[in-house]
Automatic annotation (TrEMBL):
This is glycine--tRNA ligase. Belongs to the class-II aminoacyl-tRNA synthetase family. The lineage of its organism: Archaea, Methanobacteriati, Methanobacteriota, Stenosarchaea group, Halobacteria. SUPFAM superfamilies: Class II aaRS ABD-related (SSF52954), Class II aaRS and biotin synthetases (SSF55681). Its main location: cytoplasm. PANTHER family: GLYCINE--TRNA LIGASE, GLYCYL-TRNA SYNTHETASE/DNA POLYMERASE SUBUNIT GAMMA-2. InterPro entries: aa-tRNA-synt_IIb, aa-tRNA-synth_II, aa-tRNA-synth_II/BPL/LPL, Anticodon-bd, Anticodon-bd_dom_sf, Gly-tRNA_synthase/POLG2, GlyRS-like_core, tRNA-synt_gly. It holds the Pfam family HGTP_anticodon. One of its GO terms (biological process) is small molecule metabolic process. The gene is glyS. Keywords: Aminoacyl-tRNA synthetase, ATP-binding, Cytoplasm, Ligase, Nucleotide-binding, Protein biosynthesis. The keyword Ligase applies. The keyword Cytoplasm applies. It comes from Haloarcula salina. Its EC number is 6.1.1.14.
Amino acid sequence: MNEGERLTELAKRRGFYFPSASAYGGASGFWTYGPQGAALKSNVEDAWRDRYVVKEGHQEISAPTVMPEPVFEASGHLDGFDDMIIECGECGATHRADHVVEDNTDVEEAESLPNEEVMDLIAEHGIECPSCGASLAGEPVENFNLMFETNIGPGSSSPGYLRPETAQGIFVEFPQLSEYARNQLPFGVAQIGKAYRNEISPRKSLVRVREFTQAELEHFVDPEEDEPPLAEVADVTLPLYSAESQQADDGGQRDLTVREAVDEGVVASDWVAYYLGVSKRWYERIGVDMDRFRYRQHLAGERAHYASDCWDAESEVDGDWIEITGFAYRGDYDLSKHAEHSGEDFTVFKQYDEPITVERATVDPDMSYLGPEFGGDAQRVADALEALAERDPSAFDADEVTVEIDGEDYAVPVEQTNFSVDEVTESGEHVRPHVVEPSFGVGRIIYTVLAHAYETDEVDGEERTYLSLPPEQAPTTVGVFPLMDKDGMDDLAREIAGDLRSAGLSVTYDDSGAIGRRYRRQDEVGTPYCVTVDYEALEDDTVTVRERDTTEQKRLPVDGLAETLEQLNTGELTFDDL
Ligand code: GAP
């Protein structure tokens, strides 16, 4: 069994996650988090919320997962959110064309190549269908849109889509959200929720699924003025694998501090660099192994339609690098598109300290001329003239001015535009914020944390498996056991378990089987501490507390046990301190 298979076996056996609806044969790409997994997921989400909402001072919202079609027409997902698909001519199975290339050649990021090149590589390398072994050479590589479609209400007149990213639920509400932020940039809005993608070939359990949880932050900033608090993370070392390094023959990963990465221009945006620094610390906190972690920049052909630059946090499992988070500079792409398609105002009004006087070029086109001349296009011509006057007043210097709409030229005599340049006093300006987006895949982070925590050693001559999870992330904080289910040990153990639960700790009570078996069960789900009530406890009100990784045991008084365990859980105390 490789690392991923070993993990999935443990995950199913111990209740972290398992394929959904298997009683009915299931559907590929859908997984249920069991009791341990749901608790771990909620701990990861709490740690994310603590870092990216509370500590950053951002807001959090919860938007619907189904949204009407115009949202995704505007966002570009209906046109551009595609993966490459190839269908086997023999058995009809469909595959991600870029993945079959990556699995069978040395090509690493086939997603960044044009479809024709991927088709050529498949033919050149004689790649066969992973399902039936027939040759895939000559089969067309096409685009497949990943959106799940549905109908809103009865009938089909109101199509909707399951959101492919939580981000759109934030962008469409920008006008309200901006008000709640008192129209003051910068401000950030976060959301943790489900996203859906009709993946061509789901694989590796939680790594590529069709329904998954994202934790996304959309940070709205004034591109001219706002700067991140870079000093807070300037010394954090980033393992960077830039696009340039990926394309160079001798290129490799470089370890640079945030400050160096910005000064050398390796990371172009200070905001992206800031979040790379913040996130490196956060990944360490939740248990990602920093020797199996890097930041990789997207190659040009790989970037999503909205991103001008993007870095992925990647973790290594089984020798493969998995994208766990994307850090994208989305510019004003999303807000501009939603403004254009909805006609609403997606800007922030920025008040100047003092009003200023400026020269402003305006037009007031004569519609009695434009109407007969351009018919149904007259209003669009008028709007284009207005935009041109603002952008390039010198275009009105000649007798005639030309605007282009959808590739067609419209010439208008300047005198019909009523062009003028006037002095106006302005108290502020409308700014279209830029968006910096750290976007985390919660399932892939859980998969990484579990894979990196998976350890084996030998205890009492037997192999032991344990999950070395940080106490803050562990699904259960304490296992409480009576040594034997008699003589009052059970009563005292139940009383202690109750007290620990009242103090807010997550507790498992276990009185079945030999004590060694009970320790192993807790080790396998990563419980950092186990408390055992034995005969001595009945005499002197002390219990043994065992630490998971070292299996070391110490005797502690029952009085104050909850506080001590809480301090161990938060890292205020270490086991050695006891
Ligand atoms: N809003 C930006 C966005 O959605 P993305 O890189 O497409 O960017 C962000 O997705 C994160 O969501 C990824 O880094 C990954 O962790 C997770 N993710 C994306 N597709 C996934 C899938 N099919 N299964 C599991 N996680 C996925």
